[in-house]
Design brief:
This protein is an alpha/beta fold. The chain has 16 helices and 23 strands. Helix content is 34%, strand content 17%. The radius of gyration is 23 Å and the shape is globular.
Length: 554
């Protein structure tokens, strides 16, 4: 493919015409005025997909019965099990371990490392390969207040401001206080952070931050984090066993009501396995692949909300599960890349959002939900979006500004992955802008936890995107990579402590494994007259077009 169409090239001329004045203003620190609090509220209410009443309804069963969530989430919470508990022989255990970690992304792997350091044998069960997760897809950075002009206190204020003061305070305090320690931990594990020639960390602003505290590894920060934690887990393979292509499909409780393992499904052999564990850490990530409100997603293929489905059946309450993050800048052209992330770092380095007339229309570093609302407003209400050849509408992200503001070669150096991604399609983003529109990026809510990642079910812990409360109703950039590591580490610690001191009685001592909670939940589905529930967890999304399915199944 050879870049933009002639029509789009013609429109780019309008961006180029206003660029010199915009660069001049940016050099003088004359930025587009940020919205007032009243305007923010109004923009969210009118334009943000979360604030629409369509596509949502009250969930009919379980501990959040009556709470309004997106339709796609409700259907999964009301889904029926993949297994018939009566057909599973719980006396035949395939694996015994101290700690079972469900999910092999950054959070799960961090949890495994810390549990192992605290004397536990660990099994990591992961749906695809170790590391296939949203962690590796996170691009622009990880926050941590480790600079002289900054403090966890400022970081805390930014997080709760960005979350519209709906965050759970103890979780925010845990995250922001542990952040400098986590950055140091990553550095000790060998992470290659971006640094100045004198060895100081390079840091940038993200949307909604009052200090520059975004640490990065080019635009592949998550992949670099995953590299070092996965390597470390491999180095400890005597104690940390990784079961790949083995998603958990149901949690196991014991007859004392404690979480005591999980049923895994081997995607290759199609067999079920029983893992008995003294403690379980849920780190399955989020729900991007549910495509809520019909949005494309930046998420990896396995982001299908499995953790919330299993934990809900075991009785865990969900927090803020109605809140979804749409990252302001997802790709809308070329078509092959639709939904993929364009890191916020692009705006952190100086790019602006520009409409069809070549005008800047909002402050580029508003918190994400506000920024997305501004883009939707510009396209839908004002009709000032740009249309792609297949009819998608979006706005320009003027990346060539970075070269003018920060010197030639900055785009290639700071955004190598984005540069290559577009180059493949004949677009040089150091010279041409990108076309973007919000993309479904993050599940803001999830399992209710405390600051040690404990859930209401004894022996069950949770870390990262599967949980709710840390970010409130809107997460700021770079706090997801931080969240997974802070709470991965904390849950690893707490689970190990519980294993050592807290599990009285075990299998064989009058205590049995059970799936009774699943049977009870299925009865609840019947009582609530849920007809033809879908099967959950979903495990993988099904993109087979209906007409193909019809042909295949007759
Ligand atoms: O935290 C994120 O979601 C992140 C780092 C994304 C990005 O814009 O790069």
């Amino acid at each position: 493919m050879s870049g933009y169409t002639p029509e789009l090239k013609e429109l780019i001329k309008k961006v180029e015409a206003t660029r010199p004045q915009r660069v001049e203003r940016a050099r003088k620190n004359q930025h587009f005025t940020a919205l007032t609090m009243e305007q923010r509220k109004e923009w969210l209410n009118k334009y943000h997909p979360d604030y629409k009443s369509e596509g949502r309804r009250p969930v009919k069963v379980g501990s959040n019965k009556g709470d309004v969530f997106p339709e796609e989430v409700c259907s999964l919470l009301e889904s029926k099990s993949r297994i018939n508990p009566k057909n599973i022989d719980l006396t035949k255990v395939d694996y015994e371990t101290d700690v079972l970690v469900i999910g092999g992304g950054g959070g799960g792997t961090a949890a495994a490392l810390i549990a192992q350091e605290n004397g536990c044998k660990v099994i990591v069960a992961t749906k695809l390969r170790h590391g296939d997760s949203n962690t590796v897809m996170a691009e622009g950075g990880i926050q941590g207040a480790d600079q002289e002009c900054d403090s966890p206190y400022y970081h805390y204020i930014d997080v709760v401001g960005g979350g519209h003061f709906s965050n759970q305070p103890d979780l925010v305090a845990a995250m922001t206080n542990d952040a400098p320690l986590v950055i140091q931990w990553l550095e000790n594990l060998g992470m290659m952070f971006d640094k100045h020639p004198d060895g100081r960390m390079k840091v940038q602003h993200g949307g909604g931050t009052c200090r520059k505290r975004m640490h990065s590894a080019g635009d592949m920060t998550g992949a670099e984090i995953m590299r070092v934690v996965r390597d470390e887990a491999r180095n400890r393979s005597d104690d940390i066993k990784v079961l790949e292509f083995s998603p958990a499909v149901e949690l196991l409780l014991d007859t004392e009501g404690r979480c005591a393992g999980a049923v895994l499904y081997n995607l290759e052999t199609k067999e079920y396995y029983i893992v008995h564990a003294k403690a379980v850490i849920m780190a399955t990530g989020g729900f991007g692949r549910l495509h809520i409100q019909g949005f494309p997603t930046s998420n990896h293929y396995g982001a299908t909300a499995d953790g919330i489905v299993m934990a809900y059946r075991a009785g865990v309450k969900m927090k803020d599960l109605d809140s979804t993050q749409y990252h302001p800048t997802g790709v809308i052209y070329p078509e092959q890349n639709v939904g993929l992330l364009i890191t916020e770092k692009v705006r952190g380095l100086g790019s602006q959002l520009i409409n069809i007339d070549g005008e800047e229309f909002c402050f580029p570093l508003e918190p994400r939900d506000i920024e997305s609302s501004c883009i939707i407003k510009e396209c839908i209400e004002k009709g000032k979006g740009i249309m792609t050849p297949v009819g998608r509408v979006g706005v320009w992200l003027d990346s060539p500004m970075i070269e003018l503001l920060r010197g030639e070669g900055t785009v290639k150096r700071e955004l190598p992955a984005k540069h290559i991604q577009f180059k493949r399609y004949g677009i040089d983003i150091s010279k041409e802008p990108m076309l973007v529109y919000p993309t479904l990026h993050y599940q803001n809510g999830g399992l209710q936890i405390n600051d040690n990642g404990e859930t209401s079910v004894s022996g069950l812990y949770a870390a990262g995107e599967v949980t709710g409360g840390v970010h409130g109703r809107n997460r700021l950039m770079g706090n997801s990579l931080l969240d997974i590591l802070v709470f991965g580490r904390r849950t690893g610690n707490k689970a190990a402590e519980y294993v050592k001191t807290g599990v009285k009685g075990s299998r064989g001592q009058g205590v049995k494994l059970t799936l009774e909670h699943v049977e009870k939940f299925e009865k609840e589905l019947k009582t609530a007259h849920i007809k033809e529930p879908i099967v959950g967890p979903m495990i993988l999304p099904d993109y087979t077009p209906d007409h193909v399915k019809a042909r295949r199944w007759g």
